[in-house]
Amino acid sequence: MKIDACFSPYLYPIYQGDDTVVVIIDVLRATSAICTAFEHGVEKIIPVATMEEAKAYKEKGFLVGAERNGLPVEGFDFGNSPYHYMGEHVKGKTIVLTTTNGTQAIEAAKDAYKVVIGSFLNISALCDWLINENKDVLLLCSGWKNKFNLEDAVFAGAVTDEISNRTDKFNLGDGCLALKYLYKMAKENPNKFLTHSSHKERLAALNLKADVKYCLTPDKTKIIPIYKDGALVKM
Amino acid sequence: MKIDACFSPYLYPIYQGDDTVVVIIDVLRATSAICTAFEHGVEKIIPVATMEEAKAYKEKGFLVGAERNGLPVEGFDFGNSPYHYMGEHVKGKTIVLTTTNGTQAIEAAKDAYKVVIGSFLNISALCDWLINENKDVLLLCSGWKNKFNLEDAVFAGAVTDEISNRTDKFNLGDGCLALKYLYKMAKENPNKFLTHSSHKERLAALNLKADVKYCLTPDKTKIIPIYKDGALVKM
To answer: Chain A: nearest CA to B87, how far in angstroms?
Structure first.
């Protein structure tokens, strides 16, 4: 079996393979928000790529989260901060979500064998499951507007490191080889390591340091969200 | 000014910018062979993306180098080993070249403000020139069939490291930030570092270890090949 990393949803057609588990990664903040929502009892998340789809759902009365360029979009119920998805108001609910990057990655990979959501918040559960699943793995980094970003790469490196330390049944693609080295440099203090990343600077400018800190916290949940019939649900 | 890295010719449309110098990188082996050819007196190299174009030039009587999947293509004059481009037989000649990855990257970026060829063989001359040029820089890694590869990433990291150690006038994109860290791990012994890279394994299987060693040697030439009017020439 092999594990590789793809650094942009735009590159997904180059990396896609049959019978491959795709892990969607957008740690700052979409996939962290999604993991948080399920931990707080959300029943279903319908990811949509465009604002038009999000508006159509809003008009039908759905709860809708919408973020573009790091900011919540006016007229919707939530942005993509994990803090928006905590509490009684989300419990048992179906939520529609569109974000700058993460939901685009889900859209790109939606026809894969299995599509799951990864973040530091569920990293151990995710790695356990990937090891037991016995399939090729593709770590699909959402990046920023189809460009490589550092935080998704660091998380993909953390997954590679964890999995390859525990089993040698995965052959590491060049992307994962590079990320494993990258993670060695980052793991002591991921928050500090990411200081100069473009998106962390973007979020700091938006006064979202608490979000960043939360999103980099490992193992807040054992839930692995999985894409089924057009929506994310608890596995 | 900014410097960033693009890990696949397929991603070039996402990264392209006005007034940007694009450095084409395919260290194992196309861009190393090109640097070697100019050092040995080649006058002009016409890069072509397809075998059809290469055949058409061959029929017109041109010297043609053609490589696919690491091997020279039968019926042509050279493959893409740097050793094929040394000696009197290339001096003063115009050579047509098509390779699996490198010439595809040139094709992708051919309309950029300036397109130059980078390899360990001309790294110091290249960095000097990039610093003096005072333009945005995009390090375009050719990769392997549009996937990320480790050796081009390590070279792009070496360029980032050299430039950012000498001047702070470039803002580092996330790709370059990651590569700078990667190069820190690789620089002690790039050959050993690349041991597990997919393409190095591919070349070792083809018995091309001497090629790899040569391609990783810094500063064999001061020539920077540049793309002008459909061909590469000495700057």
So the answer is: 34
Q: How far apart are CA B185 and CA B175, in angstroms?
A: 16
CA distance B164 to B131: 10
Interchain CB contact of B230 with A (< 8 Å): no
pLDDT digits (tens, 9 = 90+) for A113-123: 999 999 999 99
Mean pLDDT by 10 residues, chain B (235 residues): 97 96 97 98 96 97 94 94 94 96 95 98 98 98 96 97 97 95 92 81 80 95 98 97
Q: Which amino acid is at B201?
A: E
Chain B positions in Cβ-Cβ contact with residue A172 (cut-off 8 Å): 196
B144 touches chain A (CB under 8 A): yes
**Cα–Cα nearest to B108, from B136, B142, B137, B80:** B142
Q: SS in 3 state form for B99-140?
A: CCCHHHHHHHHCCCCEEEEECHHHHHHHHHHHHHHCCEEEEE
CA-CA distance, A149 to B118, in Å (whole number)? 24
Tell me the two tokens of residue A177. Answer: 């080889």
Q: Which of residues 13-72 of B touch A (CB under 8 A)?
A: 14-15
β-pair partners for B144: B147
For residue B25 the two structure tokens come to 């990188």
C-beta of residue B198 within 8 angstroms of C-beta of residue A174: yes
Instruction: Using the predicted structure, report yes or no on whether residue A38 has a pLDDT greater than 90.
Output: yes
Q: With CB atoms and an 8 Å threshold, state whether B174 touches A144.
A: yes
pTM: 0.95
CA distance linking residue B87 with residue A196, whole number of Å: 47
- Note whether B232 and B23 are within 8 A (CB): no
Kindly tell me if the per-residue pLDDT of A130 is higher than 90.
yes
> By the CB < 8 Å criterion, does A220 face chain B?
no
Query: Kindly report the CA angle at B213 between B110 and B154, in degrees rounded to 5?
Result: 50
Rg, Å, chain A Cα set? 16
pLDDT at A198: 76
Rounded to a whole number of angstroms, the distance from the CA of A203 to the nearest CA of chain B is 15
